[in-house]
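Subject: for your reference before the review

Hello V.,

The reviewers asked for a structural picture of the protein, and I figured it would be easier to keep everything in one thread rather than splitting it across files. Below is the amino acid sequence we used in the manuscript, unchanged from the supplementary table.
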Amino acid sequence: MRWNLDPAHSSIEFSVRHMGFATVRGRFTGFTVDVESDDETRLSRVEAVIDPASIDTGVADRDAHLRSADFFDAERFPEIRFAGTTVEEVGRGRYRVSGDLSMHGSQQQASFEVDVRDPINDPFGNVRVAAEGSGKLNRKDWGLTWNQVLEAGAMLVGEDVRFTLDVQAIAAEEAEEGAVAA
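And here is what came back from the structure prediction:
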């Protein structure tokens, strides 16, 4: 079964250590997620494409720096792409999704955990499903190595990036007939 992303009710967010003691959070506003399940709604395939130029941390100067060649180099590498290769059910509605993550001209294996809720019928006649996922990656594995050593010896930007995704999707067969509502 194919599912269509409901972007109005979906998000991809991240957090990273700043100056060794604080956390900076941000999100990507431009992305697509392609999901398939079997007839019993067990997750079977996940693919995602993120526009790195859509990064939003709430600070325009920081966002511009993150889009620059020091980090994502969004002009040269206009997409971050995840292509799932395996989906392992690790509990009822819980999965480990592994695959190829291409970012900044480099492709590495990545995985994350995802919890999928049972589908519901929404008030507009659509079959809808929701999922929450999370994971962690080391940005240096994809060549995102810019940093600055601070006076006390801490690094300005942490290497580990935690990410979360909250996704709602509508069954493709239903989405063509029904309207998506806020």
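For the response letter, the relevant points are probably these. The two ends are 23 Å apart (CA to CA). The chain has one domain: 2-175.

Happy to draft the paragraph if you're swamped.

O.
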